[in-house]
Structures are given as structure tokens and as C-alpha cells.
Fold these 4 entries.
Entry 1:
Amino acid sequence: MTQPGGDPLVSPASQLFKRHPWHGVPLGAEAPDLVTCYIEIVPTDTVKYELDKMTGHLKIDRPQKYSSVCPTLYGLLPQTYCGDRVADASRQRTGRLDIVGDGDPMDVCVLSERPISHGDVLLRAIPIGGLRMIDHNQADDKIIAVLKDDPAYGDWTDIYQCPPSLIDRLRHYFLTYKEVPGDSSSGGLVEIAEVYGRKAAHDVILRSREDYRQKFGHIERLAAACNAQSALSDQPSGRRASDLQVTADN
């Protein structure tokens, strides 16, 4: 979207406010090898936080009623969407034709040896694998990544370098965190069909990018223009926005 003269049509107010973590933050030029992650929950949280999709603020979803806490940093990948392409990967692997996308951003678990005290932060991480989770017939993959340059995990490149006990902790958490004591039906509709490695994780991320472009391509292009305008504000005066090459996926 441009104004006369070719400059991006971006409101000056866009430079005054925080970008929406889902729509306004790029996944990263090196994705899927290196991705930007928005962290919602850290392992010490006893309250479940999640991104409010309408406002872009982190909100309280609910207090954790029971002892289950997420064993890793947990959040989402910006500008991704679990739609039909993501669901099709699960359909192909499981042979089940009833699986659909869950309509949310792609979830990510980030391993780090360093404690991070709170969510609502951005970080860069290296995807090494994932869990092909199906929740009530919806594809709900969990990408597993390691914090870039982490002193303990930063050299890992594939899920098979993880100790089995760590994968078991993640599997146990996602299979049981919705269970209610005494209610045998509360968690039975969640399953993890497989644990996959780096190559499959890259495929799922790319599928989620294509799903996002199909669903929110107009927002992605506007976000790219906003990012270009921000970059221009750091340049010497006198440069026009049209002098700055802006590329946005169609």
C-alpha cells in the first residue's frame, strides 16, 4: 500500500506503539533455521498466560489449578498459522482424514539453561524438532527449539540430541495439563502421534507460514511496510521510503 510518490502508507502512530507479537513481528529472514519466538509462559509461572489475539497484549487465561507446569519456555512463532497445510501433514502421517488446523499461531517450546523470569519477551531460537500433537481432532504441533547461543543447549541441531527424559517430560506435560483429577474424560482426546526431528520441524514451520500468508497475507504486507518505515527512520534525513527496498511475500 503506497501513497502518491511511492512511499509506504504508514501512519506516524505506528511508530509510537508496540507491534502485535503475532502479526507485527517478522518470523525472521533465516527461518526456518533460526526463528523469532514470542514467549508467553516460563517454567516458574503458576498462572497460564496467553496472547490476546485482538489487542496483542499478554493476558491471564487462568490460574494453574493443579501441579502441572510447563517444563520449558513456551510461546508462539510470529506470522504463522495452523491451517489446512499444517493439518495435512498430520493427516499424511496418521492416515486420519478428520484432522483440521487449530486456527492458532504455531506453538514453540524453547530450551534454555538460563532462567528467564517472565514472558512477554522476544527471543531467537533454533528449531530442532517437534511433537505432532492432535487435540480434539485438531493439529496442534509443538515445535521444539533451543535458545540461540545458549551455553548448554545452543549447539544442539536435532531432537535426537535431547535426552529421552526431557522429551518424556514434554510429552507428559502436554498429555496431562488439561486433565482434571477424578475426571477420566478430561484429557483423553489429546494425543501425540509422533516426535519428529529438525527436517520435519522445518516442513511444519514452512507449512504454517504458507497457511498464514493465505489467511493474513494483507496484514503481513502492511507489517513489512511498517518495518521498512521504521528502518527508514534510522537513516540520514532526506531519504525517501521509496529508496528503501521492501520485499513482502505475496
Note: Confidence is low (pLDDT under 50) at residues 1-10, 244-250.
Entry 2:
Amino acid sequence: MRIRSLLAAVSAAVLLCALSMPASAHHSFAAEFDGTQLVTLKGTITKFERVNPHGWIYVDVKNQDGTVTNWAVETGAPTVLARMGIKKDALPIGKEVIITGFRAKDGTHAINGNKITLSDGTDFLLGSSRDGVSAYQEIHGDDSTTKKDDPSPSTKK
């Protein structure tokens, strides 16, 4: 009887601890991003955060009028980025990059990153929600993809 009481008390304590932990703000791709709004950004990395559940790359993009806009690019988690070949020191501040991804639905300067191209021409998938077959096709030049890149930070449907 004492063992059952002890087991029940320990189980209750573990459950209370689990319920008291803050929930992470994980979301679905469709809740935040528009899969029809593929954007291409060309700019300079200003910050790279390898955090869970999604990493973030911040890029300064020069607009047509000469002003600069800082864009936030959501990526996969650090372990996913590592599997894609992107290590901690792979994206230093100041590095010139081209990034494609899908525009945030709320109109902010944010995208769900699909692919990053380094200045030496090396491509990496960013391991985010919309990767997979379509990103593979885009990187490898498969014409069956229906996505269109736009060279400016604006979007095309």
C-alpha cells in the first residue's frame, strides 16, 4: 500500500512539473506563412540564432530606393540545420547570401526559409517547414516545380 501511495505521489509531482513548464510557441507553416508567396532576398547576415524550436537568420537587404530593411528568416531547429550541413560558424555576420523562402502572412519582413546560397555558390536547405521535395527540386533545377523566384525582396504570385 505504501508503494502505491508513493508511486501516486511521484506521478502527481511529475505531472504538475510538466504542466507548470511554459509551452513553446510552435506553429504550423500555414498559420504563419503564405505558400504562394515565394520571396528571394539578397543581402548580408546581421545575426544568426540557433535556437529551438526554430532558428533565425537576420539579413540586411538593400531596397531599390537605397534604404536597408532587416528581414527575419525562420529556419529549422539547430539539429536540423546541422544535418543540412550548416554548423555554428557557417553563417558569420557580414556574409553575403541569397535566401529564398515564403513570406509571412502578416506582411512583416519575415520569411520561412527554404534555401540559402552562399557567396561561393554553395546551396543549403534551411530545414524549415516547407522544405522537402519542392526545395530539393528548386535547388537541383527540376522544372516540375511551380514556384517562381523574384530577384527583389518583393513577391510574385
Note: The CA atoms of residues 71 and 109 lie 5 Å apart.
Entry 3:
Amino acid sequence: MRKILFFLILGSLLVSCGDKSNVYDNVSDIDQIKTDNETEDEGGCGPQRDDVEDKADTDTVDEVDLIEDVDLMDDKDLMEDKDLVDEDIEVVDDSDGPCPSDMVESGEICIDKYEASRSDATKSDQGTATNKAFSKPGVLPWMVNPINNTHFAEFKAACSAVGKRLCKDDEWISSCQGPDELTYSWGNTYDREICNNVDTFCDDHCSENNITECNTSSGCGYTYGCYTKVPTGSFENCTNDAGAFDINGNVWEITDAGSEYKTRGGAFNCASASSRLECTYNAGWAELYAGFRCCKDR
């Protein structure tokens, strides 16, 4: 059943870097969300605060930096908005290969094919469950804002609950770079359209709004307010050499660096995407959209 869902979802959601229309057609009613903290000093990350779980913690965010999110994903051309994985579903490995079917081989380990999602996630709602982490296409990834040690422990527990573990920092970097030690998961040359980042949809926004002199330079997403998170696996070319999706972009990914965590990969709403999507970049601030993915020893 899972395999059937995979192909149905993937067929409707995947788009190439040269044609983002299937994704952009479903980004509607976008408000201008540029705020004072979209600067280099503050991390350059626009503070969309929608269904992101924000548990009580010593890390806080000033109310003036928060804005109410709008539903950016339209139902048109996407699958029905329904739960894809039951809360209590049994995690079954139906793969005959060295890795479970929801993971891919990466050197000596297996790594989740998709950013981690909650058991009750859908294409427009990341859900609220926190007991297990799933790797599946076509749903919003598990994300928190701000990131802190409480969430770090929660991510590790969610991976452990499905027989995996949070990816170690060196494993994540190695998987992102691949055997050729690339700058990005896709290669050494930055391309704003390959993975979801703040500037990905600028040309689409201009086309839809009849803007003839379109700004597609760094930070254009802030100018037009056209950046958004997307369901897992929405960009077919945003993969590493092994076929893992969204290692760069969409949401930041927390990795296990022993007694601390690192924040890798870049995100949909952060400035200076060409540097922040680099495999070795580590975000040093807490107010960002942080997700994760799980790994497993082969």
C-alpha cells in the first residue's frame, strides 16, 4: 500500500528545476511577509509562524518578530488532504535491499529518503504527533521554531522509535556532498531553482503578476513575498547522488554532533541562499525552521 501511495503522490508533486509550475500554481494568497529580522545580522530568515510547534523552553522569540502565517498551499492539482500514515501504524521494512524502502544507501549507512514528517502530517499541515518520525513524500515536514535542546532530544527519540537514529553531523555532511565532495547535494554550481529556498519562485511570481522587469537576484523572495515551505519531494532534482530529497532547502535539518546539535541545509525563508544551502554551512541562531531526518547503520 505504501508503494502505491508513493507513486501516486510522487507523480502529482514532483517538478523539475526548469518547470516549477506544478508547485507554484499551488502557492496562492501570499502576503508580504518581509520583517525587520530579515537581515544578515539576524540570520535573514523570515518568521512565518503557522503550525510550528513551539514548546515552553528557555529559548524565546520576541512577539514583535512573529507574524501569523497564511495557508500558502492550495488544494488545486494536489492529492486529497488526508492523513497518509496512521498514528499507530506499524513500521514495516518491505525492502529486499540493504536499506529500508523509505531510506537510501549513503556510504556505510542508510539515510531517510525524505525530510522527517509526523505520523499525522498532510500536504498542508505538518500535524502534531511527536512519537515517531516518518520518511514519506507529499507531506509537510516536521518543523519547529525556535530550535532548542528539548526539540533536539525529541528528534532523537522520534528516530529511535522507528528503529533508526538522528543522523550524525559528519554522516549528514557526507551524504550531502556525496563521493565527489560537492558544494551542494546536486553539484558545485548554485542554482536557485533546484531546491526550495527564499528565491526559488521569483520568476514564477513575476510571470503570474505580469511583472516585466523581474528581479531574480539574491533576496528577491523577500521583495515579492513569494517564498514558502513545500511538501516533501516536491522538487525532483533536489536530491543527493543516492536519491535523498530536500537535503538542501525547504527546512533546516538538525544533526547529532554528540553533546550538541548542528543546523544544516538551508531553508525556504533564509537570505543568502547560495551560501546557506552549502553542505558545510551551520546556522548559528535558534529562530529558524528546523526539521531533521533519520539514519540507520547498514
Note: The first helix runs from residue 2 to 13.
Entry 4:
Amino acid sequence: MQVEKNKVIGISYRLKADNGETGMQPWEEVPETAPFLFLVGTDSVFPKFEEALIGKSIGDEFSVFIDFDNAYGDYYEERKTVIPKSNFKQQGTEKREPLKVGKVVPMQDEKGNQIKGEIIKINYLGVHMDFNPPLAGYDLSFEGKIISIRDAEPEEITHGHVHGLGGQNH
């Protein structure tokens, strides 16, 4: 069986990232014992990444370089903002746990879309948040292996994501 549209594949990989100044630095590792699963053809991974895996079989290794434009894009200063501390209060009490530097907090934009922001500073002005993806502006390098391939279930294809072991159950 080969990687193609409407297949659920499991991959292990080592990700390195380069911000343009430090060279490739280790960022993340996904082991063979707990592979990353995704449904091919649903835009759940970078298109250039998926293209590099098409046609591969179980046990095949891969090496994929994705420049920042084809990954998370540029880093934008305007995606940083200060939010009043009062926005983090609920029922009159301040939620202390989310207000820690480095914490990633799920939020909603003005249109109700789910977004995540990292707390980068807290001071008298409020909570300073960065809504750039953590790897915005970075070139990425993946080294990995195809661990599993299976036909997607009809429900997975309809929903556009993996269900079951390692995936979403609902």
C-alpha cells in the first residue's frame, strides 16, 4: 500500500527549525512507538510535506525541507498585542494559572475563530500576547519514516480527519 489521497498514514520524524540566524536546531521528535497520524488530502499538513510522501510505502524514509513561506510564513510584529488582565477574569475571580509567561492560551478572535496565543510578558499594562505560530519565520527540515498506512474509514473522509487510535473520537 502506498501513501495517497484518503489514506491514513502514521509517521515518525525529527523536526529541525532554522530562524535564519542559528542554523537548524532540533525542535520536535515523534517516535515510531507513537506516530503522528493524518489523513492524506485534507490539508492537515503542509502541502509540500504531503507531496514528498505521496507514493511512499511502509518503512520508507523521507527527508523534507520546507522554507518558511511554505510553512508558517513570516513572523509579524502586528500579531503581538496587549490584552487587559480583566479579560482573564471569570465570575469575579482572576484565573491565575493561564497568566504565566510562556503559557499558550486558547482564545477567540473577533469573528469567533479559535486561536492560540503565547503569553510573553505580564505587567501593569496587561497581558502581552503573541499570536504568531511558534515556528513563524522558520525554515523546517523533517527526517522521518512511514510507520503505517491504511484506508481511511468513510466517516474519516467525510469529517476530514483521523478517528480512533491516536485520532479524534466522537
Note: Residues 7-72+135-159 form a domain with the Chitinase A; domain 3 fold (CATH 3.10.50.40).
